[in-house]
Amino acid sequence: MKKSVIYLLYSLLSLTAYSQQMKVGIFTDIITKKINFAYNEGSYSVFGDSTDFGAILQDEFVEVKFISDKQIELKIGVENKGVFKSIRLIETKFNSSLAITPSEPIAKQRKYRNDIEVKTSAKGLVIINNVDMNNYVSGVVESEGGAGKHLEYYKVQALMSRTYALKYKKKHLKDGYELCDRVHCQAYHSMVRYSKEIDKAVKETENIVMKDEKGDYVDAFFHANCGGQTSDPKYVWGAQVPYLNSFKDTFCLYTKQATWEKRIQKQKWSDFLVKKYNYPITDTIYGPLLYTFNQPERMAFYQSPKLKIPLRDIRQEFKLKSTFFNNYIDGNEVVIRGRGYGHGVGLCQEGAMRMGRCGFNFLQIALYYFPGVVITNISNDTFYDQSGDLFLCYPYKLDE
Ligand SMILES: [Zn+2]
Ligand SMILES: [Zn+2]
After folding, report:
1. Staple partner for 194: which of 76, 91, 147, 319, CB 3.0–4.6 Å?
2. What confidence category does residue 14 fall into, taking pLDDT thresholds of 50, 70 and 90?
3. 397: CA distance to ligand 2 center in Å?
């Protein structure tokens, strides 16, 4: 195939996948029976099915109550407006926001931008935020990354959250929305509240995503701290990912979560390894090593793959911060000395923060942790190299 034909096909595909809106299920960790909406900024109109009840006043509450799987009761102020299949709060000025508070069960108030739609499931209300992509990504970056970080770090998180959102848009279609607001998809607990830097990072990376060499969105994994070496995805999930390999990361070595220690009762340790995994305590080589283990580089199994004891099972059993640890015995206890926090695959957040502070740009940071990916703007099909310069050549391998 000619290069131009492939390029055209690719462009058409990207345009169809390109969208600026997300439908996100919110308060999905509870089954909501009653919820209140109040004006926060901008202006809104309230709809019960197709009936327009006009604007929400500044000091007015809108109360929405679950009656049955097809009926929702709507109250505006003290007035009962009747029963509907769906309630919509539609902004009449772009970037308005609402303060939303579940009252049955009671949950903490959160603020969201753009439109809200309330529908029903068999058990309760389904609350959906129809949100501009930039607002969604900002909310996720703040919920996942916290406030007060470096701009280039926020830009990498924005790039990753946007890529995730587009890759997994169909994850919750059966629930009536695209993504949920829990870590199951990406934590999205509110509109951005604490950091103007986050909004700036999202704007400056607008429409930019990471794709693999086939043109599919990348699985943008991240974790708090890799402990000095990232994990091979096959150690964690048993599957290889072409753009992710294990490598030495020096940027996170002296950060907050770089090292940790935990002590475990000797008996508990041996019970777990011997009873559950038949650890060969009588073996002349492995027997004496029951409590002593050194891991100069990340490994997948305790002592040897021959023993078939996955480190991830030990991590889970003893609630360790990572699988990257050494251990030795001290009296009645096994001392675990570990490095890093999390599964170790993909972007190391503390390493990325440090790279930002050291003067690397978000493209350099992203390509450091995801070396085989292509960074592209999906609205105009331009590609970026590490310096941030655009390059307009076709980035994939072609058999010419
Ligand atoms: Zn989800
Ligand atoms: Zn790291």
Report:
1. 147
2. very low
3. 30
Determine the distance separating the centroid of ligand 1 and the alpha carbon of 176, expressed in angstroms: 12
Distance 169 CA to ligand 1 centre (A): 10
Q: Domains in the chain and their CATH numbers?
A: 24-131 (2.60.200), 135-225+346-391 (no CATH), 259-339 (no CATH)
**Distance between Cα 188 and ligand 1 center (Å):** 11
Asked if the model's pLDDT at residue 2 lies above 80, the reply is: no
- If 0-12 CB within 10 Å is exposed, 13-18 middle and 19+ buried, where does residue 176 land? middle
Q: Return the sign of the alpha-carbon dihedral for residues 314, 318, 320, 325.
A: negative
Answer yes or no: is pLDDT of 199 > 70: yes
Q: What is the pTM of this model?
A: 0.85
286 Cβ contact partners less than 8 Å away, ≥ 6 residues apart: 279, 280, 303, 304, 307
Please provide the average confidence, as pLDDT, over all residues in the chain: 90
Q: What is the pLDDT of residue 193?
A: 85
Nearest to 324 by CA among 300, 303, 307: 300
Residues at Cβ < 5 Å from ligand 1 ion: 180, 184-185
pLDDT in tens, 212-249: 988 999 999 899 999 999 999 888 777 888 888 899 99
**Contacts by 390-399, CB closer than 8 A, 24 or more apart:** 394/3, 394/6, 394/7, 396/213, 396/214, 396/215, 397/213, 398/3, 398/6
What are the structure tokens assigned to 14, written together?
């990207």
Among the listed residues 104, 103, 139, the one whose alpha carbon sits nearest the alpha carbon of residue 123:
104
What does the pLDDT read at residue 380?
Answer: 81
* Residue 140 DSSP SS3: helix
Ligand at shortest distance from the CA of 324: 2
Which residues have their alpha-adjacent CB atom under 5 A from ion ligand 2?
226, 249, 252, 348, 351
Instruction: Please check whether residue 128 is in contact with residue 24, taking contact to mean a CB–CB distance below 8 angstroms.
Output: yes
When pLDDT is averaged across residues 120-132 and rounded to a whole number, the result is: 97
Alpha-carbon separation of residue 200 from 96, 104, 177, 205 (angstroms): 18, 36, 27, 9
62 CB contacts (<8 Å, ≥6 apart)?
Answer: 36, 37, 38, 46, 56, 74, 75, 76, 87, 89
Determine the distance separating the centroid of ligand 2 and the alpha carbon of 217, expressed in angstroms.
Answer: 23
